Batch of 4 targets.
Target 1
Amino acid sequence: MASSKNKQTVDSEYIISKYMEYVLDNDGFPKSVYKFCKEVKISEDNFYSFFGSIESLNKSIWNTFFTTTVDAMNKNKEYAEFSSRDKMLTFFYTFFEMLSLNRSYVLFALRQYDMPFKNINQLKGLRRHIKGFAEELIDQDNEVKHYKFTKNPSAIFSEGAWLQFLFLLNFWVGDESASFEKTDVAIEKSVNTIFDLFDNTPLHNVLDFGKFLWKEKTMWN
């Protein structure tokens, strides 16, 4: 809590933090910007300086998870030298670690509506970020390939990365293992499988991933 001598700076991070606290403390989302601002004692002008609506704030939280993840990865001096495969692994490991630190809010947000597609609407901005990140990785790989037929289509790869994320997100939501160890395994197997498919490596890796998914699906049921 800020003291009277050190007035709290109201920025986007502060508003996001207060919003996530509000949602969990009130077991629900604010009905209006007015009610939220009154509860957390900030002016509506402060809010609208950063967000156009409650809905845009919801989406911004996921975007912040992404940018915070990327910033954390780039602080590692060795990250720039990683292969595309290792960069993707690092991204998913770091991103889901970020989600785990905020698990209570994330689970609440993903279950806001009874209709799954309505809940996914808040991920639109994140989708663009993840697809852009994946496109950069595949474009870097394509730059060192001399023949056009050996290059991989970035649009297909990026869409695959997004679908992969949705699978991992759903897996993480239902993961009850200690420290979410099964999610880590799912990340490793899914990323390696996708890169193996693009690198035309043996099919047994794909089958290994399929067996893992089947095993987990059976356990859930």
Target 2
Amino acid sequence: MDVTIFHNPACGTSRNTLELIQHAGIDPAVIEYLKNPPSREQLVRMIADAGLTVRQAVREKGTPYAELGLDNPDLTDDKLLDSMLQTPILINRPFVITPMGTRLSRPSEVVLDILPADAFNGPFTKEDGEQVLDQEGKRIV
């Protein structure tokens, strides 16, 4: 299965998402988006395909969001996109693209919506100890 993750290795949610993908036996294309940000076209497509607004795709925590005045509700999508591309840490993560769809995997188990359910054999526990998949590889609700 062709899977791409826009990843930040310093982010626990991103690490958990990558590990879930790998737990499914998939070797994804890993794009460290802080080093290799998406193009404007890619970013716009990912946001739309994930069913988000541009504002929902902007990361606030741990970024210069407030300092840049991005909390101004009058800012256009174009201005927000410009800021995200100029300062990639403002792109929320991780975005995952598979043939089954695109998701902003927050929380990490959202990625399960776009991976084959039968790909998992056994349990999966996130870094914080939260179990996501049971002994049979089934999603814990």
Target 3
Amino acid sequence: MTRNYILYSSIIGDLQIISDGKYLKEIRFAEEHIFCLDYVEREDDVIIATKKWLDDYFHGLVPEFLPPMKPDGTPFQNDVWQELIKIPYANLTTYGDIAKVIASKNNILSMSAQAIGGAVGKNPIPIIIPCHRVIGKNRTLTGYRGGIDKKELLLKCEGVDISHFKTPKK
């Protein structure tokens, strides 16, 4: 299936926005950009909506809409990503808190925060599906596919004071 893409410049570097023409499928960080025969550099309505969302976000506005999205993942991953979308702008939650919600929805006693971390790390639409708003239980800024530096910039963009958070040892 042919996918459309464009490169979008942002404060966290170039992003590759990928659409199937109906839905936003992925946002990739600069170091993850892919170019293959099935990808065409072309804007479509989904990409235009995504650019508008990102423009608003990076200008300090709270976007009031979501572009049409259909990330490819397992049912478990999609459940986790749906929980991420519910995290309000400039708010944070932990992997453990999401694990409790997913366990409750599935009528099981408990779920591992590590399992949630695995699904969060596979999020194909970072920023819009705000995995950067998930932190470790000990207030550690950890686990961001684009790198902790990008996670910090995104949180600062939202006005979150990260000065009292721990960063993982390098």
Target 4
Amino acid sequence: MFAFLGPKRIEGLEGIDLVLEKENQADIHKGYVPSYDYAMVLHGTDTKVGGVCLRIGENTNIYFGGHIGYGVDQPHRGHGFAAKACRLLAPLARAHGMEEVVITCNPENIPSQRTCERLGAQLVNVVDLPEDNEMYLAGERHKCRYIWCLKE
């Protein structure tokens, strides 16, 4: 059984906090690694503006889907909340021994590419999704793969 280390709330100083919604154990049959799901909330409130996920481990799904996934609700976009959420998750990733993480996005998702650039992540490559991948089956075809170094 995976040992979760995550706090229930991660306080931020730049507009948002993270509130733990769920800890997910690995699902070997689906190829899922253990993960944390956090809500992005406006600092000091419970007003949700999006969500962020941290996945711990390495496998084919991580190669294509990344260690960190995020989404910001439409009315709250344009404030850099995704990059702020990633920065808030960095200490937790380091606590799990991660020195770098993969973040992926669709090639047409310019805001997500900008988030990766704001973090200082480096674009490594653009890959074709395998036909049996869940994202491919949902209609996606390619992923930009960024590596974000977490060393302090």
